[in-house]
Amino acid sequence: MTTPVCTSASTAAAPAGQTLAHARRRTSGGTPTYPSFTSYVRARQPVLLRTARSLTANPSDAEDLLQTALAKTYVAWERIEDQRALDGYVRRALLNTRTSQWRKRRVDEFACDELPELEPVPGDDDPAERQALHDAMWRAVVKLPARQRAMVVLRYYEDLSEAQTAEVLGVSVGTVKSAVSRALGKLREDPELVLAR
Fold this sequence. Notes:
With 197 residues, this protein is mainly alpha-helical. Helices cover 60% and strands 2% of the residues. It has 8 helices and 2 strands, in the order E-E-H-H-H-H-H-H-H-H. It has helices at 35-55, 59-75, 86-105, 127-143, 146-157, 162-169, 173-189, 191-196, and strands spanning 25-26, 32-33. Helix 1 (35-55) crosses helix 3 and helix 5 crosses helix 7 (173-189). The termini are far apart. The model is unreliable at 1-28 (pLDDT under 50).
């Protein structure tokens, strides 16, 4: 079951210079609503959903993961002072939530031997080879330890810089460099990727 985080909020953004505390309203039930939160979700949802999909193998799980992260962001909305850091806050919530899920549901989730094939895009050069390489790469990324996988996803799937990745994960740039280097070494040695090249 999903919690409707932004369905009752107005779509209008808060006027410039207005603080978050003044930008909230109370619904008839007494729950605060934030028009600025609604605007943020509408503007950034596609990008954040792409991040969530990079962290999970199932599109439905990605939607649930994003919904949970947005619910956590909504609860903390008044405490987030720097609006420029919202994407980083939500990404951090996505990573923390996914890490908790890995720990709790490790026994319940099983990787399958074959990923379903996507429909070929018309006009592409040899979509079967491209799909095979994509599938092999994703299976190799899934085998990485959780921390290395998160760094690879942020660096190469989300195209964040080393500094941005370090900031999102709360580690040093050197930690990101060394972990990504080790992860790339493992990917280069993955037998499935060697065969796919």
